[in-house]
Amino acid sequence: MALCLFRQMQGTVVLPNEFTFATLINACSILVNLEIGRRLHALVEVSGLQSNLVACSSLVDMYGKCNHVVEARLIFDSMCTRNVVSWTSMITTYSQNAQGHTALQLFKEFNHSGLDRPNHFMLSSAINTCASLGSLSDGKITHGVVIRLGQDASDVIASALVDMYAKCGCVNYSAKVFRRISIPSVIPYTSMIVGAAKYGLGTLSLQLFQEMVVRSIKPNDVTFVGVLHACSHSGLVDKGLELLNSMNGKYGVIPDAKHYTCVADMLGRVGRIEEAYELAKSVQVEGDARAMLWGTILSASRLYGRVDIALEASNRILESNPEVDGAYVTLVNAYALAGDWENAHNLRSEMKHTGVYKEPGSSWIEVKEPT
């Protein structure tokens, strides 16, 4: 709608200003439309706004959202003046494009510059960067900045801290921050549930889930991934099946491939291979999600010696993605275990012909000469 109105505006005598461009560029950020974003960038320069703080901050954000980090940085460096918004956009750009260390370095530069105080958007971005890096030391330093600025009461920042500590393996720290949130939403609850499940605290995950239900906080799809993962790693199979069956009817969350894969893994871990197999056959998933689901079945069936199901799972994976090397190798091994040497030989020959085959039993590492 905004872009359509702008086209109409271009046919009038009304000239766009920096706020017009910022609105349009933000629309491109939301749509991740690099082509139109670049056209608007050109119009910004034609309009003489190439050094304007508002327009340039929007351009930094747009290029970042479109994964064009170099262009975002060029605009950031060309700005005569910068504010907390432009710095936050650049930090977030690095963070969202797998350049977390650079994002944290820029965050430190901003803090040392004394230009302004970081707002909760910048602090949240820095904390999320620490979480994605799994850097507890940087996370604690950033938490210290939060406390010094008196921002630790913010629910947004507290939720980010809960997630960061959980992802860094400090579930106790995560719980301490979580318990200080006056009215926690689904986001910190989910971070706690997923973090506890990841580190083998299945009982805690289920307790937190039950607490959510009692407090009438509606779980989302990620919450269920966490709690099903907890059931899988704690051997709580019946509870996991109960949760899967109640997701849609009771909580309005439709199960998807992630949930079915968790449950298949849960069943496979306790040797209930037939049930896991029937579950995988009963759901409609495609692409990488399908390969992941059947990969779970493949691992469990191999572990428990179900060659028949391993063969089926390998074929299903190859149907989803013919370039999965491991599925070919496993299928050859499954044929061999079943005594079907002809198919094993034929498939290995096909692998060699198509270039999938890898010579087994050798690897290279670089070893420095002793000094």
UniProtKB/TrEMBL annotation:
<protein>
    <recommendedName>
        <fullName>Pentacotripeptide-repeat region of PRORP domain-containing protein</fullName>
    </recommendedName>
</protein>
<feature type="repeat" description="PPR">
    <location>
        <begin position="185"/>
        <end position="219"/>
    </location>
</feature>
<dbReference type="Pfam" id="PF13041">
    <property type="entry name" value="PPR_2"/>
</dbReference>
<dbReference type="InterPro" id="IPR046960">
    <property type="entry name" value="PPR_At4g14850-like_plant"/>
</dbReference>
<dbReference type="Pfam" id="PF01535">
    <property type="entry name" value="PPR"/>
</dbReference>
<comment type="similarity">
    <text>Belongs to the PPR family. PCMP-E subfamily.</text>
</comment>
<dbReference type="InterPro" id="IPR002885">
    <property type="entry name" value="PPR_rpt"/>
</dbReference>
<keyword id="KW-0677">Repeat</keyword>
<dbReference type="InterPro" id="IPR011990">
    <property type="entry name" value="TPR-like_helical_dom_sf"/>
</dbReference>
<dbReference type="GO" id="GO:0009451">
    <property type="term" value="P:RNA modification"/>
</dbReference>
<dbReference type="GO" id="GO:0003723">
    <property type="term" value="F:RNA binding"/>
</dbReference>
<dbReference type="InterPro" id="IPR046848">
    <property type="entry name" value="E_motif"/>
</dbReference>
<dbReference type="Pfam" id="PF20431">
    <property type="entry name" value="E_motif"/>
</dbReference>
<feature type="repeat" description="PPR">
    <location>
        <begin position="83"/>
        <end position="117"/>
    </location>
</feature>
